[in-house]
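## retry 2 of 3
previous attempt timed out at serialization; input unchanged, resubmitting
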Amino acid sequence: MQRIYYLSLEFYMGRTLQNTMVNLALQNACDEATYQLGLDMEELQEIEEDAGLGNGGLGRLAACFLDSMATLGLAAYGYGIRYEFGIFNQKICGGWQLEEADDWLRYGNPWEKARPEYMIPVHFYGRIQHDHDGVKWVDTQVVLALPYDTPVPGYRNNTVNTMRLWSARAPNEFNLKDFNVGGYIQAVLDRNLAENISRVLYPNDNFFEGKELRLKQEYFVVAATLQDIIRRFKSSKFGSRDPVRTSFDAFPDKVAIQLNDTHPSLTIPELMRVLVDIEKLDWDKVRPCMVEMFRGPYPAPRRRVNSPEICLLGFLGQQKEIHFATEDTCPWINMAHVDIVGSHVVNGVARIHSKIYYYKWRHSLLLLLFKDFYEFEPHKFQNKTNGITPRRWLVLCNPGLAEIIAERIGEDYISDLDQLKKLLAFVEDEGFIRDIAKVKQENKLKFSAYLEKEYKVKINPNSLFDIQVKRIHEYKRQLLNCLHIITFYNRIKKEPNKHFVPRTIMIGGKAAPGYHMAKMIIKLITSIGDIVNNDPVIGDRLKVIFLENYRVSLAEKVVPAADLSEQISTAGTEASGTGNMKFMLNGALTIGTMDGANVEMAEEAGEENFFIFGMRVEDVDELDRKGYCAKDYYDHIPELKQAIDQMSSGFFSPKQPDLFKDIVNMLMYHDRFKVFADYEAYIKCQEKVSALYKNTKEWTKKVIKNIATSGKFSSDRTIAQYAREIWGVEPTRQKIPAPDDPRE
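## retry succeeded, writing output
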């Protein structure tokens, strides 16, 4: 049997209780039991802390993948770090983001089990020693990796996989030499230095942090995991911890390792080191083993090459140099190059993403570097469009919608989401249209009540809920949304007696603590809200709300209530997106650019059922060639000029008129993401949204078409493709017998 190992520096799991009840079919029984005890299940669920061990999309994707791997009966393990402090809690004070430590383990974690019997030493620092026995790594600092296991149940198939997270512990002899010179207290305090490795998640999304601690975290998870993989491979007898296997011939057939982004890239050199230096395999033996396991058939250099930074690729009768390191005085290692050479497959996460990375290298230096790899070995590059688990992102978060779908097409769609296509037969069904609209309205009322209780804001539940929730980043263009809000506000002020379709615009997301522009964007959103929400002329026709501390458990409340999903990144910048899929599955319509998975979502639903606007990737390339001049748009579009002038004059910050000068300056002179270039198309597209929303029936028909065509975006489909096309295993929906089932 082949085992799958999914390595990720982030697993954004959220809460576990309800998800476990859904997957084990225990929800009704647990509801009844808590009722009998005089408890309320919903209150109980709200007490659980989110396991916020991720920043955003990458960490949440890993969590969805674990659910799908268990549901598809794969022998798969998730490996990561048990951060003591996850993604910070966001507080908004005076319109500014403040960060609070996320002490999620304060009251313990009932879902995990410490496994000290599998504790593993990880080495840092030290030096290399050559002797007659070969190469030794000596005088190292040792940190112990203590594993904590969390069960990952599949959907009603009696399969339970494991997520193993490593916690750093200092060995008892840590800094022992200091004990003997009277430094006992300091030596004990210094144990923290070792244990800091798993202390905190780096809070950056789509941003590289060149810090020693981050590098230590990456090596820590890689080194511990590889030792664990090899131990398990050697123990061939069920339940045995004694090493039994001595030959590694079968290793590539028994082990598949998937790296989530470049963060665990050190897996590749570390596995080479372990096999040669620890397991004493010949390099000539290791090379084909690596080639088969990672199937990287690049002509690998001998173990000790003259220049370890260069790999010579032979193709087209030529030799081509691919550099792993820069030639600076302080060289940088290009981990993407290490990954490509050391892996048997490299995949993008949406069709456009894969295409941009591997085919469209014309105008990008980064992509030009990948061109040589692609030309040498095109079959190495694949696409695996991301997906989301329908268990958490429909059954758990939107039971009303899940139920009315099941009434029409049965419950099998929950583990075979393509079956949603059967709903196309109900697009004209008056009863179904009514039911879909009713569930959406109920979700909106519930979310309105939550906002009133938690944030003390009262909103109009009959307004269009226009929602953009994701990390705050210039490329995601929350600023474009802000410009629409200001334009909409100005139009109401200009014609106060005209009928406008009322909107509640909600924006949520965290900014990396050191990302000045992102924090300024949050302040701008809250400042616009202060003006708009308190203007009596506007009334309840427009409300602007910043959703504080956006996280998995808040997403589970906001996604089912959304009417409009904002996916407005500059074309060519969002790898895939997965929030877009959650909104589509839950009955929101999308306003978006042709970026990431939006392209495939529009293709599935039909472009006529999507609000597509703005530049395509080719247009962005063309604009780069010509030169983007924001001032041209500012000079020629009066409403845009008015909005920018209001921002720069202090209209939204009367006590500090120059507060937003950095934002205005960036938009006018340094905007890499070309906000103004898409402004006009975005405003026109928003007008189409308002026009359609007036016609509830036609709007709801489009909603049904979107739900019915969202099946492709199940992470079950994604994982089935990984399994068949990369890992070489066959997924199954077969239910294995429960432990208490009578055996034949």
